[in-house]
Specification:
- The structure holds two protein chains of two kinds.
- Chain A contains 28 helices and 26 strands.
- In chain A, the strands form four sheets. In chain A, strands 1, 2, 3, 4, 7, 8, 9, 10, 11, 12, 13 and 14 form a twelve-stranded mixed beta sheet that branches. In chain A, strands 17, 18, 19, 20, 21, 22, 23 and 24 form an eight-stranded mixed beta sheet that branches. Chain A has a four-stranded antiparallel beta sheet with strand order 16-25-15-26.
- Chain B has a two-stranded antiparallel ribbon with strand order 1-2.
- Chain B is globular, with a radius of gyration of 16 Å.
- The interface between A and B is medium-sized, with 29 and 24 residues.
């Protein structure tokens, strides 16, 4: 016997949702009504249309059901009323509300930008899911902080399965030239052991990961691409799978595409090939990432590792002792990772800790200002609160309305601030020097969860700071007091003091920010304007890199470039060089043996620049003694820099001297004959020694050499584009890079520029905010003391007395703020001493200048309200009271 | 004293209840308004308005027990109070007065 088919039922989820929303009294009959109509519609139209109608009913009933729940006996939802009062109040004080929103936007925006950068540089340097279990092996080598192990160290550690569940090697690969975006560009390849990305916890978004076996000899070469690179080459990353690409010396098949945000080990790598898990060979070093064993504790493992690879008595490796560092805390050092040759003494944690402090100062100034605005607003509205209270509004309702009144501009400001932070982080990421940006495994961007937290904090802060003011203004006794008071709000001594104290806090923080900003700007200018040892005016560099397998030899290309540029009107002079400043790459320390001296004169890491004879004139290098090298000189006839001559030949007899360099006796390299002494090239402002002191030594470029890098003196900097176009026309399939020398050096101190720029901007904003706040405070105080001023004027007080009455207290508290600010600035300046170059952290003249600037501006800010008070007609003033 | 002024939807609800008489309950009132005006009415909006009118003393509401004839469902029956009837008539008269003289007003000869 067949069963009776069940009639369709209303959509279960929609019905449940509505039953939760509806008021308990209405629930049963409302649902019954809907069910009845649903049944009727099923028989008339069918189950589908009936279900759609039901869902529409539920959707349209949401807001009315909520409003019904909020209804009280008065017949009108009180929360809606309070929101209306709040909106009306915000519209009534439009200018103040806009100011409030703008201040909040500034604080949230500045915090967002600094936090995004700090997240990338400091907090979450390795944004991989499994980062907590990953460690690297770092050493402070003379060439920078690097994560390498030698073969013995690797063998010792990889066998300790009690410490490490797995260990993966990775290595820098080639940098082939590939066509991209209408031109040719180099792409960084990195080789990784299969399984490393699994250990990081990241999978390709398309295709498959690298697998064990991919790296075996004889297998088809495969690779992973990064999404942005795959889009440039293939349009759709999905199309890239199983396509082949040429990496100059080999063709590889694409097996997977990693997400666009994935970076390993830095930002620049875009292609990953499988690396054979062969331990580093003798005298070779390997980069390694290890996964901690399941219950291993990182600090205990760290101690064990240091004991294993750096036992007492064992000579320290030439590259320094090994230490275990969690991947998330591993310091990135551009000296080790960038091939651009630009060095920087960038201490990311210290820099962004300082910038975080700057953002906190700005946020504090903003909150002090907002609190002051709220207090002023609450005072102005005392009479309105009293009237509303008499008409039946409870204190809770008034406080709630005031909280809404503060929350509305704060929410608007927070939203604007998030927008400002998004824009600011994009601008910061774009302005970042490439040498710094290339290090970031975690790109600088806004984390939307962090943005939501900041916005929520802003709104919470606004509510919390507004509560005391509103609580005071809605006191019950106030209604009685106001029956006997005049139309203007009264401000007691306590309230006045509260406003002045808030202002003092703002001023002190503003002093700190201004002092820090000036110090950082001075430091940046000092670094930028340091004597580089040559004339950088309209000086540019050209680098050409030929792809493999071209028909033209490097020498032919070099000769053609030289001959075409030498006859071009776009340049004044050109010279070839094997090395372009400020780059400093590689090199080991060696002993310096001077002819006629029995023992080494010192340890040096001479950086040899092989140059054309025209180089010195083109660069504008100054000759201090002897002569420059010429075309006829051998490669052992050199020009040393002034510091080398001063240190090793203090008697001024460097010219004609001979020397060798080498670790062993007899030294292997040399003899070099000094033919001249030139001004010292400033290679990087940190002047970090590579196991010895760095000196620049110029030698003649061999005739057969084709370095394909040049320095050119231009008639004007805007001719560089013509030069670039000309070189590209000569070598269309080559990578051509042209840059102004000033820009190459600017990269070196890019961190100073960031610090100075951000701090300076924040300090200026804080200064304006504080001055506007001061003007507002003084205006409110004048308004609140109208009766007193009128009485004094009526009793014969002169204008100077009125001026003193208005400005005097403001100036006293301002002075207190400045003094407190100077004390805080001294402490803050000392804490950033390591970020300063050529600038004293404690500078009394600077403090005096900042104090005078604030004092003068503050006086101007208070002048107008004071003038208004002085011009008041006592009769009219007292009449309006 | 004519009583409180009614908002547009409140007036529609009152008129629908008046049209339906004693048998007026939620679903029927909703259908009546939709049928006569073509305006879609959400059940939630209807019950909120009914509650508001009850608070103003213009309607009384009675929830019936679930009856077998109603397939086991409760119903919320509505009835106008005298004050509600007066307010409804007053609002309707005011509306008529406002429309008086307009060329397109219903009942006016073209």
């Amino acid at each position: 016997m067949r069963g009776i088919p069940e009639s369709p039922r209303p959509p279960r989820v929609a019905r449940l949702f509505l039953s939760l929303l509806l008021h308990p009294i209405d629930r049963d009959p409302a649902l019954a009504d809907l069910d009845e109509e649903f049944d009727a519609r099923v028989s008339q139209e069918g189950a589908g249309p009936a279900a759609r109608w039901y869902r529409t009913q539920v959707r349209r009933s949401v807001w009315p059901a909520i409003a019904r729940r909020l209804m009280r006996r008065s017949g009108r939802p009180p929360v809606v009323t309070e929101l209306r009062w709040a909106w009306r109040a915000v519209r009534a004080r439009r200018a103040a509300a806009v100011m409030h929103a703008a201040l909040v936007a500034l604080a949230v925006g500045a915090s967002g930008i600094v936090f995004a950068a700090a997240d990338a540089f400091v907090f979450r340097r390795a944004p991989y899911p499994n980062v907590d279990r990953l460690v690297v092996f770092q050493r402070n080598s003379p060439v920078g902080v690097i994560d390498v192990l030698d073969s013995n160290e690797y063998r010792t550690l990889s066998q300790r399965t009690d410490l490490f569940a797995a260990m993966f090697l990775h290595a820098m690969g080639p940098t082939p030239l590939m066509p991209q975006a209408g031109g040719v560009n180099s792409v960084r390849v990195h080789d990784v052991e299969p399984g490393l990305f699994d250990a990081l916890g990241v999978q390709p978004r398309w295709g498959r990961p690298l697998r064990s076996g991919d790296e075996l000899p004889g297998r088809e070469p495969v690779a992973l691409l990064r999404e942005d690179f795959a889009r440039i080459r293939f349009g759709d990353p999905g199309v890239a799978i199983d396509q082949t690409i040429e990496l100059e010396k080999e063709r590889v098949r694409v097996v997977g595409v990693m997400p666009a945000g994935f970076r390993f080990p830095n930002a620049v790598e875009k292609i990953w090939r499988p690396l054979a898990a062969t331990p580093p060979g003798r005298d070779r070093m390997g980069l390694a990432v290890a996964v901690l064993a399941r219950h291993a504790d990182v600090s205990a493992v760290s101690t064990l590792v240091e004991g294993l690879v750096n036992p007492p008595g064992k000579p320290v490796a030439s590259l320094g002792p090994v230490r275990l560092v969690p991947l998330g805390k591993a310091q990135k050092d551009p000296r080790a990772y960038t091939n651009s040759g630009a060095f920087t003494s960038f201490d990311a944690p210290r820099l962004f800790t300082m910038l975080t402090g700057v953002a906190i100062c700005l946020a504090a100034i903003v909150w002090l200002n907002v609190t002051g605005l709220t207090l002023a607003s609450a005072l102005e509205r005392v009479r309105i609160y009293s009237l509303q209270s008499v008409l039946g509004a409870t204190r809770v309702m008034l406080i709630r309305a005031s909280v809404f009144e503060n929350a509305i501009p704060t929410a608007a400001g927070a939203l604007a601030g998030v927008g400002l932070a998004i824009w600011g982080t994009s601008a910061l990421a774009a302005a970042l020097p490439p040498a710094l940006g290339s290090l970031l495994a975690n790109p600088i961007d806004i984390d939307y969860r962090a943005a939501a937290v900041m916005a929520a904090l802003a709104i919470t802060g606004a509510i919390v700071t507004s509560l005391p003011a509103v609580w005071w203004a809605t006191r019950p006794a106030l209604a009685d007091r106001l029956r006997h008071a005049g139309p203007s709000a009264t401000m007691s001594r306590t309230q006045l003091t509260a406003r002045y104290v808030l202002m003092t806090g703002q001023m002190s923080l503003t002093v700190v920010l201004l002092v820090l900003a000036v110090l950082l700007v001075r430091s940046y200018v000092a670094r930028r304007d340091q004597d580089k040892g040559f004339d950088t005016t309209a000086l540019a560099t050209i680098e050409v890199r030929q792809p493999a397998g071209t028909s033209r030899t490097p020498t032919e290309l070099d000769q053609e470039i030289l001959s075409r540029l030498q006859t071009s009107s776009a340049i004044e002079s050109i010279a070839r060089t094997g090395r372009l400043p400020p780059g400093l790459r590689g090199g080991n320390a060696a002993d310096l043996w001077i002819e006629g001296r029995a023992t080494p004169a010192g340890q040096v890491a001479n950086t040899h620049f092989e140059v054309d004879p025209e180089y010195f004139q083109t660069m504008g290098i100054r000759l201090l003694a002897g002569r420059f090298t010429t075309a006829g000189d051998s490669s052992n006839q050199v020009v040393v820099d002034a510091e080398f001559a001063r240190r090793f030949f203090p008697n001024g007899d460097a010219v004609g001297a001979r020397y060798w360099t080498g670790r062993r006796e007899p030294p292997k390299t040399g003899p070099y004959e000094i033919v001249g002494v030139a001004s010292r090239l400033r290679l990087d402002t940190s002047q970090v020694p590579m196991g010895g002191d760095v000196y620049v030594v110029h030698r003649t470029l061999p005739t057969a050499a084709a370095p394909l890098s040049y320095v050119v003196r231009l008639p004007a900097t805007d001719r560089l584009t013509d030069v670039a176009a000309l070189v590209r026309s000569i070598a269309p399939d080559s990578l051509v890079r042209t840059r102004l020398m000033e820009d190459r050096y600017a990269e070196v101190y890019g961190d100073s520029r960031i610090a100075a720029g951000l701090t300076g901007s924040v300090a200026l904003v804080a200064f304006l905010v504080a001055m506007v706040g001061l003007y507002g405070v003084t205006a409110v105080i004048v308004a609140s003391r109208t009766r007193e001023i009128g009485i004094r004027l009526a009793l014969g007080a002169g204008k100077p007395e009125i001026r003193k009455l208005v400005i005097g207290p403001a100036m006293r508290f301002l002075a207190a703020g400045v003094i407190l600010g100077v004390v805080m600035a001294v402490l803050a300046s000392r804490s950033i001493e390591s970020q300063l170059h050529g600038v004293k952290p404690v500078d009394p003249a600077l403090y005096l200048a900042v104090a005078i600037a604030i004092g003068v501006t503050a006086f101007i800010a208070t002048w107008r309200p004071a003038m208004r008070a002085m011009r008041a007609d006592p009769i009219n003033t007292l009449k309006t009271e | 004293m004519p009583g409180p002024f009614l908002a547009e939807f409140e007036l529609y609800v009152m008129l629908a209840v008046a049209q339906l008489g004693d048998g007026a309950y939620g679903a029927l009132v909703r259908q009546e308004i939709e049928r006569r005006t073509g305006r879609p009415v959400a059940i939630g909006a209807l019950y909120t308005t009914l509650a508001r009118l009850e608070e103003k003393g213009l309607l009384t509401l009675r929830t019936s027990r679930p009856e077998p004839g109603q397939r086991g469902r409760a119903r919320r029956y509505c009835r106008l109070t005298p004050r509600g009837a007066e307010a409804m008539k007053h609002s309707a008269r005011m509306l008529t007065k406002m429309m008086d003289g307009l060329a397109w007003a219903p009942g006016r000869a073209k």
